[in-house]
Amino acid sequence: MQLTRKIGRTHPIFCIPVGRDPDITTLETISAESRGGKIVHSDDAAQFAKYSQNIRTASMLSFAVENDGDDQERVMMSLVCTFPDRVFTEKDQKDILELCSRKSSFLPPDEKEEVGTDTEVLFEEKNPHMPPLGSRVKRGRDWRYENQDNYGPGTVIGHSKMEEWLIVEWDTGSRRPYRFGTTGTPSDKYDVEICCEPRVLFNELIGTGCLVTRGKDWIWGNQDEGAGNIGSVLVFQSSGVVLVRWPHGLIKEYRFGRDGCFDLEIIDPFSPKAMKHLKDQMRKAVSNHIREARSDTTEDFEKPSSFSTKPRVECEKTPNVDLLDSPILPVIKGKYFKNNKALDKSADIEIDGPIFTPAIKQWWWKNGEGKWLPFPKEENKRINKCYERYPKSTVVVSIQNQSVVMAKNLVINLTTKNVFQIKLLKHRSSP
Length: 431
Prior knowledge:
This protein has helices at about 1-10, 25-30, 45-50, 50-60, 60-65, 70-80, 90-100, 110, 270-295, 375-390; strands at about 15, 40, 135-140, 155-160, 165-170, 175-180, 190-195, 210-215, 230-235, 240-245, 250-255, 265, 360-365, 370-375, 395, 400-405, 410-415, 420-425. By secondary structure, the protein is an alpha+beta fold. The model is unreliable at about 110-115, about 295-310 and about 315-355 (pLDDT under 50). The strands form four sheets. The chain has a six-stranded antiparallel β-sheet with strand order 14-13-18-17-16-15, covered by helices on one side. A five-stranded antiparallel β-sheet has the order 6-5-4-3-7. A hairpin with a 3-residue loop joins strand 9 and strand 10. About 25% of the residues lie in helices and about 20% in strands. It is built from ten helices and 18 strands.
């Protein structure tokens, strides 16, 4: 994986699944971490032979070059105007649209290369109004980097040399810079947004984003500003040393296995203390960022506007789910149609309407009353997508602000801290 990641920094990697049972998850990870790579199935091999030609065509479209390339109608108009005499098949058009939407994957390496010590000074805070190191983030409203995050969260480990850019290490280990606007204008871009998703370890001793407190071999006085204070791990070295940022801003190295000593201990990421720390960290980062955005905003932007300078935050308060128990459009029996069934009054928000049909791969969660409830269609689809790519990943769903930890078959309500069981059932069955 290290070799493919090194090659993928400057070249796209296209993976073609072969055999009876190819490891799609590994192939997708390899291709996603490369510059413009993707999975190419055998049925698409003939079309893939034209890929280089379509790349050249996409690079000549003025609208796609000057914009993000997500407006399909404008891209197609630019295609027709630029090449009025050429005929493009539906597959060619699809390839060109995909290439325009993934324009960032084909930028020169110095603009979007995976971060290394030779390209960035890591673990330094250069802008007090940017999220501090150790902040947890996930893909934001202007995300354009395919599956670099593997659909999971990451940790801020530096403020880039490029103004308004953060350096993020995803929980998969990949490090890259991303935009996080600070001017408070509509032109700001947010590739990532601040969140409070915890770092979950899988067969690891410790990792970037873990929360720690002083341990049994602590000899560093009051560097943490008192026993019980929580710090965020920024990097773990093979020599048994970790770099930690404390809430008051101090960044120091500590022993974690070196010479058999452990200055720190990892705290349970789902404990009330850890969740409170993550939320406080998130609120502070948002507050600092909003103040900076407002200070840079002119009087024109102080007038009422539909634009908000507030960056999107994953753990904002959600509406009371009790107000959403009834279907959007209730139909009373016999009022407008000759119904054969009365409206199911017991239908819960987790069910897509009064009549629910489980999906082929349906996720269920067990509520406090011991009742198994299905995740709604869109959330179920999102969980399955993450599960197929990495069965041990964690995903936050919008229903009651829940964090699904697939490795442990648990779902955690991030608001109440309640923990419930989950299960995956296939073939449209019910618990």
